């Protein structure tokens, strides 16, 4: 479409704009932690804990920009 500079004498124009819907991606992040216990007898014990978070990212398909994440 050609650029148009409107002025007082210009005729009304109808402009249609098409756009792509935003892309929604589901992502996961796993977080690990190790808890180290020191027991009364001096021995140690380790416990691994894992948590996986699932979240959505909304991405603008024209720019690739992440609009929302969470």
Give descriptors for this structure.
70 residues; mainly beta; 3 strands; rod-shaped; Mub_B2; Mub B2-like domain-containing protein
Topology:
Layout: E1 23-38, E2 44-59, E3 66-69
Antiparallel strand pairs: 1-2, 2-3
Protein name: Mub B2-like domain-containing protein
Domain Mub B2-like: 25-67
InterPro entries: Mub_B2
Could you characterize what this model shows?
The chain is an all-beta fold. The chain has a domain at 28-69. It contains no helices and three strands. A three-stranded antiparallel sheet has the order 1-2-3, with no helix packed on it. Strand 2 (44-59) and strand 3 form a beta hairpin.
Mean pLDDT across all residues, rounded?
A: 89
**What order do the helices and strands follow?**
EEE
Q: Rough shape?
A: rod-shaped
Biggest sheet character: 3 strands, antiparallel
Give the radius of gyration: 28 Å
Strand content: over 45%
- Count of alpha/pi helices: 0
**Quaternary structure state of the chains depicted:** single chain
Give unreliable regions as ranges.
none
The number of E-state strands comes to 3
Distance between the termini: 37 Å
Q: How helical, in percent, are the residues?
A: under 10%
- Give the strand order of the largest sheet, numbering strands 1, 2, ... along the chain: 1-2-3
Structural class: mainly beta
């Amino acid at each position: 479409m050609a650029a148009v500079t409107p002025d007082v004498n210009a005729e009304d124009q109808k402009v249609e704009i098409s756009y792509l819907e935003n892309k929604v991606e589901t992502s996961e992040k796993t977080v690990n932690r190790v808890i180290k216990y020191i027991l009364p007898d001096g021995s140690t014990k380790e416990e691994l804990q894992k948590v996986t978070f699932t979240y959505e990212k909304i991405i603008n398909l024209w720019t690739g920009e992440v609009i929302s994440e969470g």
